[in-house]
Write a structure and sequence with these properties.
With 249 residues, the chain is an alpha/beta fold. It contains 11 helices and 8 strands. It has a single domain, classed as Aldolase class I (TIM Barrel). The longest helix is centred in the middle third of the chain and has 17 residues.
């Protein structure tokens, strides 16, 4: 079954809006794992607007031996006060997976994948450094990415297909073309020997069709929609609803 990794960035946004320690990011992680989620995802950013380095450390300890831990980030972003840099965080916390994302400081959220024809050689030494710390490496890519197959050549283990355009098309009621692009990207990645993850704007309305079309999907990372839905239905119940979709229920 496709692994559900719950992204907890929005829990940290809510905490940081007030200050203090509530809502607790580790407590939310425990609820998700107890409900059956197979992993936790966080995206520590240099501006620390949600997940902070201390959250990464606490979650690494919580997940160790219990669940997958996935750290997302931009390996090209330099360290700064309060943010030691992605490589340093990985070296310290040893996550299961590190997902590299080409986001800039000013982006509200990730909105595109790497162009591996341009960025591949720059990424190669960083991928090697991450893998030396024992973690799997995934690269965030667009469904219509050029040179997607290069991800394998530069050492990546997986790609994560950016599903924002698919989610937008699904919301408009015309998802067929965008879904076909995701399937084509997944097939190209699999043919190159890569595992396939997916993420961004996935929700209970659009997830089922994606998993049905890509039954070998290894992992989905879902945060914004899941946390929003949990405000109404409860966090544990929402996690279980996603797991039922992934199981074909």
């Amino acid at each position: 079954m496709t692994l559900l990794s719950v992204n907890l960035n929005k829990i940290a946004v809510l905490r940081n809006a007030r200050g203090g320690a509530e809502p607790s990011v580790p407590a939310a992680a425990r609820v998700c794992l107890e409900a059956g989620a197979g992993g936790i995802t966080v995206h520590p950013r240099p501006d620390q607007r949600h997940i902070r380095a201390d959250d990464v450390r606490a979650l690494a300890q919580l997940c160790r031996g219990r669940a997958e831990f996935n750290i997302e980030g931009n390996v090209f972003a330099p360290p700064r006060p309060g943010y030691p840099g992605l490589l340093a965080l990985v070296a310290e916390t040893r996550p299961t997976q590190c997902t590299l994302v080409p986001d800039a400081d000013g982006q509200i959220t990730s909105d595109h994948g790497f162009d591996l024809a341009v960025d591949g050689e720059r990424l190669r030494p960083h991928i090697a450094a991450l893998k030396a710390h024992g973690c799997r490496v995934s690269l965030f890519v667009d469904a219509d990415a050029r040179a997607l197959e290069r991800a394998a050549a530069i050492g990546a283990d997986r790609v994560e297909i950016y599903t924002g355009p698919y989610a937008a098309a699904h919301a408009r009621g015309d998802p067929a073309r965008a879904l076909a692009q995701c399937v084509a990207a997944a097939e190209r990645a699999r043919a190159a020997g890569l595992g396939v993850n997916a993420g961004h704007d996935l929700n209970q309305a659009n997830l089922g069709a994606l998993v049905a079309a890509i039954p070998y999907l290894a992992e989905v990372s879902i945060g914004h929609a899941l946390i929003g839905e949990a405000l109404y239905a409860g966090l544990a119940a929402t996690v279980r609803a996603y797991l039922a979709l992934l199981a074909g229920g």
